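Journal club prep — side note

Before the paper discussion, L.F. wants everyone to see what a predicted structure for a comparable chain looks like in token form. Sequence:
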Amino acid sequence: MNWLKSVGCFALVVAFASVRADEKKFDAEKMLGKWTYTAGEKAGVKSDLELIQKGTVTITKDTITLQDDSNKFVIKYKIDASKNPPVIDMEITESPFGAGAKAVGIVSLNGDELKICYNPMGETPPEKFETKEGSSANMFVLKRAK
């Protein structure tokens, strides 16, 4: 009888854990909408906040559009939510510099804060949400526009 209770308890723990894991699964639809920059950095150097805050980011189901007063970039993307952290594959489809450039990164969404850290022209995403001197990684932190 004790063995049966142990098996039953184990089954409940496994069932609860799988429900909790599903709750934490990345939901790309929560990225949709307009965003503003709150921080950025490249190769360990912080971006000029005043400059990047002039831009906006609009995310649809298939594209990310970056726009400021003089430039517009349209990027198609796909997210692999089975990875931890989720991996984002991006390809520029429209820009002042042409199309076709690809990048791969990681993405995190916590409430109204979205982080994207990526290697431009890279085939491997960064492992962490950080950039270091000498690396090619870029990272941007966005907040949902109100």
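L.F.'s comment for the group: Residues 2-23 form the longest helix (22 residues). Keep this in mind when we get to the figures.
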